Structures are given as C-alpha cells and as structure tokens.
TrEMBL record:
Region of interest (Disordered), residue spans: 95-121
Protein name stated in the entry: alpha-L-rhamnosidase
GO biological process annotation, one example: carbohydrate metabolic process
Keywords: Hydrolase
Pfam family, one: Bac_rhamnosid
Substrates-to-products reaction catalysed: Hydrolysis of terminal non-reducing alpha-L-rhamnose residues in alpha-L-rhamnosides
EC number in record: 3.2.1.40
Length: 861
C-alpha cells in the first residue's frame, strides 16, 4: 500500500513570496492506493535559519491547517515538507519541499519612498513615464523586488522585464488597501553595475473611470512608484535599493494611455537601453518624493492579471478606405499584438475594437464613451507592439494604416484576466448546451480582471456587488476564485458605510444622481453574507467567514433596522429583479416581481445564512439571534405574500423562484408552488421571464419543487428571450440583455447593451449541480453528493472539479436501456451517489461505476 503527498501550498497562494501573514496556513493533497486509508495525523518539517524541526499533529485535516511553528519574521525564508500518517500505521514519504518568504510585516520596516515623475495635465489621459536609477551590486545570494504604485507599473532590471503580470498592482480602494507585488530577481542582478527602471501609467488611480463621461484623478492627481530591491549577500548582509530622490524620469514612448480609450505609441520616441547600466540619463530630471502611507500596503490574496491565451483571426476582410476588419471568432478581454519585419516611417496603424458588427462595420455605440482605440506611429523599423496599460472587450477589430501585404503582418489577440487556475469543466451530449457553458466561461474570463466587473468593453467595468453575488457559486465551480474573491470581499468591507450599507459596486466611485447617495439594496448588498458563505462551502476556508463576519453582520443589522418590527423590507430604493425581459429599456428595475418581495426574501435568506456563519465561527448567541430573525422574516413574508395552497399574491416567476429556493413555503405548499411556477414558465413558452434576481435561481427552484423537466425545457428553449437564443444568434459570451442582439440582427437600442456580462450565465451552476449532479455535503467537498437528474433528451454529461482534496470526476450515460454513472472520489473525501431511481450508494476514494435500467421509476428530488 502506498501513500503520497503533493507539494504543500501556503495560504491561497501559488507564489508564496511576500506573504503578508506570520502564520501561513498549509494545504496538501494525498493519494493512497488503498481506498480505505484515512489520515490520522501529519508531520510538518520546517527548515528556517539553518535549523530544521519536525512538528507532529494529530488531525485528519489537510486543507488550510494552522501554522505549526513559531511565527515567521519579516523577510524570513522558510521551507516546508509534509508527510502523513494513517490510522493503519502507515506513513507516507515526505512531500516535495515548498518555499515561502514573508514580506515586511510591519509598516515601519519599509525604507523606500514613493516617487513621482511630476504633475500631469488635468482632464486628460496622462503620458506614461519612465523612471530609473543605476546601482552597484556585490555577490548576491538572493534578490527580492517588492513594488507597487499609485497607477500601473511594469519594472525592468538590466533591460529585462520583471514578471509577466499586467495592470499591476490592480484596482483596490487605494485609500484603504494597496497591494505589493513581490518578485525573485536573483537571476537578473549582475556583479558590478546594474540598472533598474519602471514604466508608470495612470490606470485606475488617476485615469478616467465610470459612466456618463467618467471621473479622473479619483485617488490622486499624480502617479507614483514605490519599489524596494533587497539584495542578500552570501553571508546574509542585506543591501536595499529603493525608490528615493536619486531616481530620474523621462516621458515614455506611449503618448497617452487610458483603460477605456486605449494607447497611442510613437516608436520614434523609444529610448534604447534606458533600463540598462551605463545609460546616460544626465538630461533626465529627478523624480519628486511624494507622501505615501505604508500602513496601507498588503500582500495579494489572489493571482495577478496575465495573458492567459492567444487567439488568431478567423477572418480578415478588406473594407473601404484600405481598412481591414479582423474577426477573432470569440468575444474576449485583452489586447492585440502586431508583428511585421518593417513598417514605413511615419505610418500610423490604428486599431479600433468592438464586440459586434452592424451593416458589416464595427458597431461601437454600446461602448458609449470608451474610444477603445490603439495607435502605433512607426519609425520605419521592425514592428512588434502591444499596448501595455489598457484593455478592451472585443471580438472584432478594424485595422487602418497598413499598406503592405497582409501576409507580412502577424495579428494576435492576447487574452487577459486574473490568472486563476481552471478547476471545473462540464460537457454534455448537446453541442448547444456545451457552447452555452463555454460562453459562461468566456464571460467570466473577460470580467475577472483583478476585480469582478460587469463588462469589459464600455465606460463602466465596475465591481457590481449584485452580479458577483448571484454568480459566485458558478465562478467557484469553474476556477479557483478563493483568493480573488477573498481579496475583493475585503474591499467590500472597507468600502461599506458606517451604517452597514454595502455599495452597489466596489471599489466605490462617483455614480451620478441615480447611484448617489448610496442606498442599501437587496441582492446587491447581500453579497456581504452570501458570497463568503458560497466560498466557504466550496473551499472550506473558515477564515473568509471570520474576516467578513463584521461586514456580514453590519449588513443584516442594517436591513433589520430598515424592516422594523414587522420584518418587511418594503420601502426605499430597490433594483429588484433587474433587467426582467418585460421591463422597459428606460427602467430596467420595472419588473413583474414586486421589488419589496425580492428585498424581504433576500432579508430572510441572508439572516438565515448569517446564523449558519455564526454557528460555524462559534458565536452561539449570534447564531440563535439571526436564526430567529430569519424565522420571523419568513413568517412576515408568508403573511404578506403567500396565499392558501402555495400561491403568491405576486404571481410572477421570480417571486416563486425566490420563495422556493429560500424555503419560504411550508413543505406541504412546495409541490403546489412548483406546479404554479411550472405553469407560468409553460405559459411563457418556456422563454425566460426573470431578471438578475430570478434567473440564477429559477432552474434550481423548479428542480427543488419536482419540476426538473420544466427546467430542462427552459434551458433548451431557442426563442428570445432564452439562453440558447444567444448561442444561436452567434453569441460567444453571455449578454447583459436577453435581446442585446435583436432577431433581425440589429443591436438593442437601449443604453445598457453589453455582449459580455456573466450574471445571467449563473445557470451553469444548475448544469454542474443538477445535470451533472455534483454538490458539496461538507465544506470543501470533503463529502459530496453526485445525484444527476437526466432530462431534456440529453444522453450523457460529464463534470470534473479540482477540490481542495483532489480531483473529482463525474460522468453518466443513457444508452441501450440503462443509466450508467461513473464517479472518481479523491483520497480524503467520501461521496454519496444517488441514481435517478433514488437508490443511494456510499463511495469512498477510488473510481466507482453504478447503474440501473432506465425503466426504473425516477424519484423527484
């Protein structure tokens, strides 16, 4: 019998440099050849400062276990190996070692100053700057670079780009938190003379952000770089090269850069060798040292934005005036890279971007006031150019200014988003359903760009709280979003108002008269409670509950005050079932479902969930209080809206979906409520009749009420509004409106018309949990259920998921009169397999195959 342990992981980090905690938690995965093997304890070998210790712990835990040794100190290196012990007396071999390094853990330990290239013209995109300095290095055992910025940065050391992340340090509420990126640059430092340099651009810090023309200089009127290069000699002596008044600066070859409007690059303005040692910067002026608060510096929780893939054009079509229309075949967020052996001196290559065409031309009206235009001015030399500090959402691009043979020009679409690990897949016997799922994945990729945005293309791209609240379970089923969303939830807590109000979007920026002042709103504000719980259920990370608990409690307490003694939240601004397909374009909140029904239902659900969170954290009194509050709100909801026999006075699809999903009906009413919801869906031709509040829940509600066949009919409906209408209309991402593209091929005239919004793609969670049948029974999928419910003519489905304990694989087939289910359970987990007949099979680690005749009656679940 063999037992093996994978290399352990620190916290949620793949890159364990610059940890921001002194006691990093550890996780590992175990594989055992005996399915009955179970971990009884583990040993952690900790090597630090030349001393190695082995610490033994009696525990079956292997996910985010407590740090077993003394706390790390600032800049301390540590190496860790793990071995596990079974109840049967077996002991594994040691895992491969994992290394980590703690960053400065006290704000006073930083020696760098923030340096700025100086004042920039107001009310315009700033010209990115170059900053540099030379330094001398002796023998170096290790070189660590820590860097952040007010703005966006890229660093070069001796002429070589440091790292491959983009749009760093990302977007946080800079007045509360600013991430520091850490790099091991030992291989780039040379004995003797060296140079370090950085590009510095506006980004979110002082660039234009927001709709209705946007706002500039929201966080400051000038950019600044904060960097610290720490050189450790073989004997341990530390030398620091930090940003200070000795650095110099010069305008870069990027003439202007904005996240919405794009970049303009003049190749003739390039400065060869500027980041190499010996460069003559005598005519470069010194930087200005500016105020900087090191207490705001934090280590990243999630991965940086990177290029995660490349797309080649599927067609390039000539247009009038020497223009070329480029179709990448996929809507995505990113940039275009151009390559050519030479471009005539003075040539101006212009790239315009759009998601859709109309009349054979780019249709840019949905971009509103985002120019989304990149320009390259040639100096007559070779071309290898990609914008640095902008990003666009597009499928199509128009290139003008190229006069040569197109075969001499290489055009590459570069896909950018936070570099989360892909953890979940789904496929079925229906190609249209699979394309729908792929559209969900692409919309997530396009919008998980440092924060969870609404759309990647127009003058908005904000972290709308309601969108991610409804989508978080889907997101966690596709990618490892544990660190990404844990970081953003900290921003939610930081931006939460003193009275507990959760903003509509985070980070907060001015929103014009409609969104200002900030009002508490259901669905959106409930992100403070429901999203931490969704992450805990998926990843088993109790810390995210503890970190967000004050925020979650403040939200529910606020709603409790607003609802008053009758427990009905029936006043104030509410978005309700936003973008109900029957709502008029000028009023997306004018839905069929009573917005106060939505608010009260969500109040009951958030109070119930907060009670569960309190219990998990050991807050017994709070658990009792919020559970009682939920029960009282449920009773108030029932008295206000529930009629005799499982009907609602507000007879709308979303009303029933919420009431069923949130257990607001009595058990004896559930079947009747499900039948009424079925009838409403059938009366609507199985087309979508729900908006942001109802759509993510309606299929689950139908299934819960025994109407799974109707959920399949909704899934497979092809007429607008429906999920497959989008697919059949050529959509490669999820749309903001069900009819963003009208049946006649023209674009919806509404002001809000995006072709890349993920929220309505939350149906993928139903594909994962009902079609494939995989759901957690315990946090982190330590125990899980596989209970597929075939329907809709599907003959097969498959689902894979990388859980904290290992790889889960599910597949089922219906053929030749039999239903066959195959499930792989990882070591450390157990599963409950439920066949369509209701038969239950308990399964331990290993691969299991079970089946039954399809003639066996199906049990409604």
């Amino acid at each position: 019998m063999t037992v093996a342990v994978d290399q352990p992981r620190f916290e949620r980090r793949d890159n364990a440099l610059g940890l921001g905690v002194a006691r990093p938690r550890l996780s590992w995965r175990t594989t055992a050849s005996d399915p009955d093997w179970a971990q009884a304890g583990y040993d952690v070998e900790v090597s630090r400062g030349g001393v190695t210790r082995v610490l033994s712990v009696e525990s079956h835990d292997s996910v985010l276990v407590p740090w077993p040794d003394e706390p790390l100190t600032s800049r301390e290196d540590v190496e860790v190996r793990v071995r596990v012990r079974g109840f049967d007396g077996t002991t594994s071999a040691w895992s491969a070692p994992a290394r980590a390094e703690a960053g400065p853990l006290d704000p006073s330990e930083w020696t760098a100053s923030a340096v700025s290239p100086g004042a920039l013209p107001a009310d315009t995109d700033g010209r990115p700057a170059l900053l540099r300095r030379d330094f001398t290095a002796g023998a170096v055992a290790r070189a660590i670079l820590r860097v952040t910025a007010h703005g966006l940065f890229e660093v070069e050391l001796n002429g070589v780009r440091v790292g491959d992340d983009a749009l760093a340090p990302g977007w946080t509420p800079y007045q509360h938190r600013l991430r520091v990126h850490t790099y091991d640059v030992t291989h780039l430092v040379q004995l003797g003379e060296n140079a370090i340099g950085a590009w510095l651009a506006d980004g979110w810090f002082r660039g234009r952000i927001g709709f209705d023309g946007g706002y500039r200089e929201l966080y400051g009127d000038r950019t600044a770089l904060f960097a610290q290069l720490e050189l450790t000699a073989p004997g341990g002596a530390l030398t620091t090269v930090a940003t200070d008044g000795d650095w110099t600066t010069h305008p870069s070859a990027i003439l202007a850069s904005g996240l919405y409007d794009g970049e303009r690059f003049d190749a003739a303005e390039r400065i060869p060798g500027w980041s190499r040692a010996g460069f003559d910067d005598a005519d470069w002026p010194p930087v200005e040292v500016v105020p900087f608060d090191t207490s705001l510096l934090v280590a990243p929780d999630g991965p940086p934005v990177r290029c995660t893939g490349e797309l080649r054009p599927v067609t390039v079509t000539p247009l009038a005036g020497g223009r070329q229309l480029i179709d990448f075949g996929q809507n995505f967020a990113g940039r275009i890279r151009l390559r050519a052996a030479a471009v005539p001196d003075g040539a101006e290559l212009t790239l315009r971007h759009a998601e859709v065409l109309q009349g054979g031309e780019l249709y840019t009206r949905p971009l509103r006031q985002a120019a989304a235009t990149d320009v390259y001015l040639s100096d007559g030399g070779p071309l290898d150019w990609e914008p640095r500090f902008t990003i666009h959402g597009f499928r199509y691009a128009e290139l003008s200014g190229w006069t040569g043979d197109l075969h001499d020009l290489e055009i590459i679409g570069r896909v950018y988003h936070s570099d989360m690990a892909r953890t979940g897949t789904f496929s079925s016997s229906d190609p249209l359903v699979d394309r729908l799922h792929e559209n969900v994945v692409w919309s997530m990729r396009s919008n998980f760009v440092d924060i969870p945005t609404d759309c990647p293309q127009r003058d908005e791209r904000l972290g709308w709280t309601g969108d991610i609240q409804v989508f978080a379970p889907t997101a966690a089923g596709l990618y490892d979003v544990s660190g990404f969303l844990a970081s953003w939830l900290k921003d939610v807590a930081a931006e939460q108002l003193p009275d507990g109000t959760v903003p509509w979007y985070v980070p907060v920026i001015p929103g014009g008269p409609y969104w200002t002042p900030i009002h508490p709103g259901a669905v959106w504000g409930d992100v403070a409670v429901l999203t931490p719980w969704a992450l805990y259920r998926h990843y088993g990370d109790r810390a995210v509950l503890a970190d967000q608990y004050p925020s979650a409690r403040a939200w529910v307490d606020l709603v409790d005050r607003l609802a008053g003694p009758d427990h009905l939240w029936d006043e104030g601004m509410q978005l309700g079932d936003w973008l109900d397909p029957t709502a008029p374009p000028e009023d997306p909140a004018d839905a069929k479902t009573d917005k106060y029904l939505v608010a009260t239902a969500y109040f009951a659900e958030s109070a119930r969930t907060l009670g569960l969170i309190a219990a998990e954290l050991g807050h017994a009194e709070d658990a009792e209080r919020y559970t009682a509050l939920s029960a009282a709100t449920r009773a108030a909801f029932r008295e206000r809206w529930v009629l005799t026999g499982g009907r609602l006075s507000n007879d709308a699809q979303t009303a029933y979906a919420l009431a069923i999903a949130f257990d607001l009906f009595d058990e004896r009413e559930l079947a009747a409520a499900g039948e009424r919801l079925r009838d409403l869906v059938e009366a609507n031709g199985h087309r979508i009749g729900t908006g942001f509040a109802g759509t993510p829940l309606i299929c689950d509600a139908l299934t819960k009420a025994g109407q799974t066949a109707t959920a399949y009919a909704m899934l497979l409906e092809r007429e607008c509004p429906s999920w497959l209408y989008t697919v059949l209309s050529g959509g490669t991402t999820i749309w903001e409106r069900w009819d963003s593209m009208l049946p006649d091929g023209t674009v919806n005239p509404g002001e809000m018309t995006s072709f890349n919004h993920y929220a309505l793609g939350s149906v993928a969670a139903w594909l994962h949990g009902t079609v494939a049948g995989l759901t957690p029974l315990e946090p982190g999928f330590r125990r899980f259920r596989v209970a597929p419910q075939p329907g809709g003519g599907l003959t097969a489905a498959e689902r894979t998921l990388e859980t904290p304990y290992g790889s889960v694989a599910v597949s089922w087939r219906r053929a030749d009169g039999r239903f066959e289910l195959t499930v792989t359970v990882p070591t450390g987990s157990r599963a409950e397999l439920v066949l369509p007949s209701g038969r239950i099979v308990e399964a331990g680690p290993g691969t299991h195959r079970v089946g039954e005749p399809t003639t066996v009656p199906v049990v409604a679940r």
